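Problem 3 from the worked examples.
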Amino acid sequence: MSHTKTDPDAVRIALAQMRVQPDAAANLQAAVRMLEQAAVQGARLVCLPELFRTPYFCQTQEAANFSLAEPIPSPALDVIAAAARRLTLVVICPVFERRAPGVYHNTAVVFDADGAQCGLYRKLHIPDDPHFNEKFYFTPGDLGVRAFDTAVGRIAVLICWDQWFPEAARLAALQGAFITFYPTAIGWLPAEKTLHGETQREAWRTVQRGHAIANGMYVATVNRVGFEPAPDGRAGIEFWGSSFVADPLGTLIADAPDDADVLLCADISPVRVERVRQEWPFLRDRRGDAYADLTRTFG
C-alpha cells in the first residue's frame, strides 16, 4: 500500500533537524521558525531534537549547568504551546526539566494541535559515556513508556539512548502507538570517526529500523547537527544529523543529510500499519507468558 499524500488517511509529519547555538533564546526562535515552515508544508506534527534549547552540556560534569533546567510549564514551553495552537500543529518539545531541587529529567512534552499539553515522557535509559555524562544530570524517568492521543492519532515518544532498547519500542506498540518518535542528540567523537564512524551510524539506523519491523509501526528519529566543542578544551562532538523516518517494514521513506539544518517531512499512514500487521502478525504471535525473565538484569 502506498504511504504518500494520495492516501486519504495519510498524515504529514516533520522532523526539525537543527544546529544548536549557544543562545537559548535564539534556539527557541529557530524552533518556532521551523514550526512555521512545517505548517506551510502541510505538516500536522513536528518533533524537535533532544535538549534543543542549549548546546549539549552533558559533555562535562558541571553543577552550574543545572541552571539551564526549567520547570514544566515554563515561559519557553508557553512559546511552543502558543505556536502549536496558532499553527494547529502537534508538537513534541524536548526539555531539560527541573522537577524539584536536585531532581532533573531529560523530558519531552507533547502539545496537541490546540496547544494543550497531552502529557510528558521522561527518558528511561540514561547513558554514561565519555562526552555523554547524562547520569550526572538526569534522574531516570518514572512514568514508564507512554502513548499519547493527539489530533493525528496515538503516538509514542522515547528519547535518544532509549533507541537501543527493543523493550521500550515494544511497550510503545503495546500502548497502541502507530508511530514512535525519538528526539536525539548523537554524534561522532573526532578520534573515533575515521575508524568507527560509519559503523556506529549504521548500527544506530539499523536497530531503529528493526524496531519498526518487529512492531509493525513507523519510527521517526530527529537529531541535531553540527560540531559542538567540549567546554573543558577537549575535542567535542560532531552531531551526525541523519534524521529519518522508517515505515513498518523498516524502509527509509525520508532521510536527512549529516551536515545541514533540514525540515524533514514524510507522509505516514495508520492504515498501512494495520495492513502490515495483518501480513506479519508479530503482536498476535507474541508469548507474553514466556517472557517473565525479561524483568531480570541478566540470566
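Problem 4, a separate protein:
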Amino acid sequence: MLPHLRAGEWFVRSGIQLPNGGVARYYRTDLERNHAVSTEITGYAASALVYLHSLTRDKRYLDRATAAARFLTRTAWDASAGILPFETDPPRFTYFFDCGIVVRGLLAVWRGTGEDEYRDVAAALGRRMHADFASPEGDFHPVLALPERAPVERDPALWSRSPGCYQLKAAMAWWDLFEATGDESFHGTYERVLEFSLRQSVAFLPGHPDTEKVMDRLHAFLYFLEGLLPRAQEARCAAALARGIARVAQLLEQIRPRFVRSDVYAQLLRIRLFADWSGAAPLDLQAACREADALAQFQAASADARIDGGFYFGRKGSEWMPFINPVSAAFALQALALWECRASGAQPHRHLLI
C-alpha cells in the first residue's frame, strides 16, 4: 500500500480522532495514550482528510473531515463570545496561528461538502482574528488568555510566543476567506502580515544557539514559505521562496544527525514542489528525491493500529521520539502523495495545501 494510503488508514483506525470529531495532539507510544484534543490539530486533520478524499473518493475520509469540522463549529467555537480556544478542557488560551489553521480546515470541508455552516464560521473566526489579536504596534499577538482576551507576555526565546514570519501561514486563511466570500477586508489583512513577514524573515534563521531549537525554527520558517504561495509569482515573494528553500535545506543537512523532525522534511518537499509549479523556484530533483526517501523512513510499521501507518514526530540520533503525530502524518502523506503524482503532471490547487 502506498505511504499516503497507509497514513489515511491510520487517521481512520488509530483512535487519534475521538468519537466527537476532535483530534488529539499526538499518541504517546511509551505511555500508550493520546494527548488532549487540540483545535489546531483538528483543523489540520480536517484539511488532511479532505485531501485524502480528493485523491481516493473514499467516503470515509469526507465523513471524518465533516466530523472534525462539526466539532470545531459546534463544540469548540463559542459563537456568542466569538472565541476558539486552543484546548476546550479547559479553555484557557487562544492562539492566532491556531485560529488561522482552523479557518483553512473549515474552508477545506466547505469546499468538499458545500455546507455553508463551515464557511460562515470560518468567516466569523477570521474577523475575530483581526479584532482580537491586532496589537497597537501593528503586529498580531500570538497568544491571548481567556476569557478576558488579554495578550500573554511575549517570550523572544520562543518563536510560538512571539510575533513572526511564521504567522503568514495563518494569515493565508484571510486570503482564502477573501476568495471564498469576496470580502475585500480579508485581502488587506493578509497583505499587512505579508509585509511584516517579509521584513521579519531575514533574521529568523538560525535564530537560536541551540541546534535543536534551530530545527524547530526550520518548521516555523517553512510556515512562512507556505504563506507566500498566494503571491508566489511576484518577484519579491519568488525570491524569498528560492532563498528560503536553500537556507532550510542547508541547515537541515547540518542538524539532522543530532535531531530531525519529519514535518520539516515533509514541508520542505512540499514547498519545493509548489514553488516549482508556481514558477517561483525550479525543482532540485536530486535534493527532493533524498528528502522523499528520508521522509518515508518516519512512517511507523506495527501490529498496533494506534501506531501503524502513522508518522513519528522526530528522531534524536538513531532513536525515535515516542510521538505519533497527526500533523507530521498529514504533512508527510501529502508530501509523499504529491511526489508520487509529480510524474503525471498534475498540479494541485494551493487550497489543498494542508
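Solution to problem 4. The chain has a mean pLDDT of 97. The two ends are 22 Å apart (CA to CA).
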